[in-house]
Amino acid sequence: MEIFGLLADGFATSLSPLNLMIVILGVTAGLFIGAMPGLGSVNGVAIVLPLTFIVPPSSAIILLAAIYYGAMYGGAISSILLGIPGASTAVATTFDGRPMARQGKAGLALIAAAVASFVGGTISVVLFTLFAVPLADLALAFGPAEEFALVLMAFTTFVGLGGDDVLKTIVMICLGLVLSTVGLDLISGQPRLIFGDLPGFYSGISFLVLAIGVYGVGEILYTIETSRTSPSVTPAKLSFRALGEGLREMNKLWKTMSFGSVMGFFVGMLPAAGATPAALMSYGMAKTFSKKPETFGRGNIEGVAAPETANNAASTGSLLPMLTLGIPGSPTTALLLGGMVMWGLVPGPMLFIEQPDFVWGLISSLYTANVAAVLINIALIPLFVWALRMPFTVLCALVLVLCIVGGYAPSQKLHDVWLIALFGIGGYLLRKDDYPLAPLVLALVLGPLMETSFRQALISSQGNVFTFVERPLSGLFMALAALFFVLPLLKLLRQRKSKPPAVAE
Amino acid sequence: MINTFTRRTAMALMASAALAVATPVAAEGWTPNKPVEMVIMAGQGGGADRLARLFQSMIQTENLSPMPILPVNKGGGSGAEALRYLKDKEGDATTVMATLNSYYTTPLRTDIGVDIEEFTPIARMAIDNFILWVNADSDIQTLDDYIAAVKEAGGSWKMGGTGSGQEDSLVTAMLEEEFGVKYTYVPFDGGGTVAKNLVGNHIDSTVNNPSEQMGFYKAGKSRPIAAFSEERLEAFPDVPTMRELGHDLVYTMQRSFVGPKDMPAEAVAFYTDMFTKLSETAEWQKYAADEALDAKLLTGDALQEFLLNGREVHRKILDSMGELGS
Amino acid sequence: MLAADRIIALALMGLSLYFMWHATVLPIGWTDGSGPGGGAFPFWLSAVMLLASGGILLRSILAHPHEGEKFFPDADAIPQVAGVAGLLIATIAATHVVGAYVALMAFMVIYLRLFGRHGWGLIGILTLATPVFLFFFFEVTLKILLPKGITEPLFIPLYAKFF
Do A202 and B76 touch (CB under 8 A)? Predict the structure, then answer.
């Protein structure tokens, strides 16, 4: 029970008045940064990293943890209110969060997201506290073959996410995967699909550019057409009663949330995977195992809770390989890793033994930051909901400005802003013709990992395709992937048998 | 004409306005009047990025620049994106670029219309080293054991490294030529991932930089076999160099800063001075020692000579690999 | 609806062919001992996309037209949507020359007046508040410089003051 003593020491530092103030400041800043389309925890952490040399290292870690958590919570805000995922981790949150906002339930969706994030964060920090060291070995067991099998599994969990039109879904998945290959081919070191040598394509097409394009600009164009000057969003009301109702609703979802947390933690822990596949898998599974899968995508609160628990749990999980193996699972953890190196800490297996103060200080500040984040987030919900009451044309103008600036900010290229306009107009036309856009965006996110790990595994095995099923862990994931692929089909067949064919909408 | 006239006037007006709020540093000569862009030739999170961001925060904490230094990653196309960007910044006084060896290899492998000779050398901050590593569980203790094992594997020995055509693959090619062996080269997206895959036994050996394996090495999970440095590394006194073992294999990674073509002389002087001061700080010296970096500073013409020499070395290596572009 | 469906399917087929053509720069086959080449993924996935969008085209030719369903249910909306899209493109183009601040301010004025028909008071407040917010949030706090174009010199005293 040595862990608890160490943790108590950690709490003693993280609960001092100065550090509490830092937590509140960090979480609030993180929330706003995360809520901006285009900006996420990477930006928050990058900005405060140099500042952390001014404050004592223990406070510095707390500040970083607070910003990290704040931004993770904030990502859901723009997904729900504007329908633009602020980060790839929050894509799945738009599926049901946005419809809820359109139905005037933005407040409820935001509460659901906050509570779910809190549950995910808490369960995963507990898991982290208890099992950090032994789990590091599991992360090591993941080679390219296992990574490929895992991504394939993530893909199959959202087979059911596409529209009713199979052909159109296939087109969108392929388009997303092809767009994900633009840029440098890592394996051969050669550029490909750079379209007449445009330097802007050298670094590939960023997920954010596509998401801001189709969900931001595309959504605005669509709303302009369908509603023109009338408001698209039912004004949301928020009261203490609504808060209570939200909490009661959430109480029914404990199964989804605890499953999402545990799965999110484990998937996030694997260096290459991270929070995005975790959130997608959680959403996909919640839908697969739901009694009413047809309500997903139309404003089901469970569809907000499932990805939000998983992505928060995964972002805690992704700290694990960073601390125990020195491998960053995401750009944000890469920056944190850089920060640790600057403080003279060597991440890796020895960190827990040589620097217990640091490690347990960090873990205890994760608990504190998580509690602060949920409280501050709920306190600010009225403000966010109020923003939706702006006249539509004003909101529209502001969102377009944010799309332009937010699209420019991550890599600071106007090339990306042009792509946003292109994807926005293209996405708008595709959407009007009933092409599902979610598979397009998801394929772009998972594509690079899938292709690279597939080819790495084949190179390692001298071109033997059976490597994916021969290796035990990889074989297990392949079997699960097959199961997830077949399950929705079986369910569909059973429904067809028991019920007369449903009338299409 | 009218356009330039108004621009000039505006500038003059603004300059006088700026004087009113100017800080005392203005008296010391040229200083940047807008934030300085630090273009990084690699993506976020890699070794080059971490080092560049370390420099940025040190410049900030040591107050070496009156304007903030803003790191921008342009790692696309193995740095081709950054090189093209810097080429378009001709004459600019507030852009510097953090380079690594792709500064040589990228323009040599594919014609991107960039001649690195045109860029303005500022400062070489460090030289990083390469070491041959195996998993600590393996029986391999010496270079001879290693070569014997690779030969026995008959081409299926898995060497992990960064992307094809980048540093790790060049070192691998040098090993193949020197020892007459054949590897299966598995490219990964970063040195950290390579290190992890070695410890997880997914690959058989790597040529990681010391800093990338340091955590695992200290935990006794990976074993250094030989270093590709000129002399023994202080941090690894027991690891022989390839030269000591009778093989003339030396390969290092340079970490320098350059400016665009025709950067104003006073700006070059300012940045050279800034990086010189930076390299003298105790923090940097300690960091360099911890990470087994050679922190000898090189500036001006000496640096240009070093860089052009490096390009020739890489031209030869790439030529022997058949990777030289047109 | 049907015509639009066909045009989009054709456009996607064209796009697939264009991708396939570009993908052939790298080997698209299976190399013995090391798996697929660098062009294989984009090439074959584009090929699947070509087939699937071909299928959509074929289906729309064979299928009965959806009665009463139109691509643009409300023809009045077309100029509105096209106007916003055009304004967006013009704004991005202007950013190259006059920088983000001027371009975005012009965008706000035109959009709010033409499409929103708001009063000049509100337009003035929003148009002035937005760049101030952008400057302090992105440049001062987050240290992300926005493109300035020819307006760069105007910002030098601001840099001196706030950085």
Answer: yes
Q: B323 near B175, Cβ under 8 Å?
A: no
From B197, which residue of chain A is nearest by alpha-carbon distance? A143
Cβ-based contacts of B78 with chain A (< 8 Å): 184, 189
Asked if B25 is an interface residue toward chain C (Cβ–Cβ < 8 A), one would say: no
CB within 8 Å: C85 and A404: no
Q: Is this complex's ipTM strictly greater than 0.90?
A: yes
Contact residues for B179 (Cβ-Cβ < 8 A; gap 6+):
B147, B150, B151, B247
**Whether B17 contacts chain C with CB within 8 A:** yes
Chain segment B284-309, per-residue pLDDT in tens:
998 888 888 999 999 999 999 999 99
Asked if B35 lies within 8 A of C150 by C-beta distance, the reply is no
**Whole-model pTM above 0.90?**
no
Q: Write the residue in C8, C26, C134 that is nearest to A188 by C-beta.
A: C26
CATH number for the region B131-227 comes to 3.40.190.10
Homologous superfamily of B2-128+252-320 in CATH? Bordetella uptake gene, domain 1 (3.40.190.150)
For A67-82, b where at least 16 C-beta lie within 10 A, e where not — what string? bbbbbbbbbbbbbbbb
Chain C touching partners, 3 or more CB pairs below 8 A: A, B
Digit-coded pLDDT (tens) for A385-428: 887 778 888 888 998 998 999 889 888 899 999 999 999 999 99
SS3 assignment for A479-501? HHHHHHHHHHHHHHHHHHHHCCC
pLDDT in tens, C75-97: 777 888 999 999 999 999 999 99
List CB contacts (< 8 A) between B82 and chain A: none
Residues 6+ apart with CB under 8 A from B49: A334, A338, B40, B42, B43, B71, B73, B75
Q: In this complex, do C156 and B22 lie within 8 Å of one another by their Cβ atoms? A: no
In sequence order, which residues have a C-beta less than 8 Å from that of residue A172 and are 6 or more positions away?
Answer: A162, A430, A435, A436, A437, A439, A440, A443
pLDDT over 60 (residue B127)? yes
Q: Answer whether C19 sits within 8 Å of A178, measured CB to CB.
A: yes
- On whether any CB of chain A is under 8 Å from the CB of C37, the answer is yes
Q: Are A401 and C95 in contact (CB under 8 A)?
A: no
Of A114, A120, A90, the residue nearest A243 (C-alpha): A114
Q: Answer yes or no: do A189 and B72 touch at CB < 8 A.
A: no
Q: For chain B, give every domain's residue range.
A: 2-128+252-320, 131-227
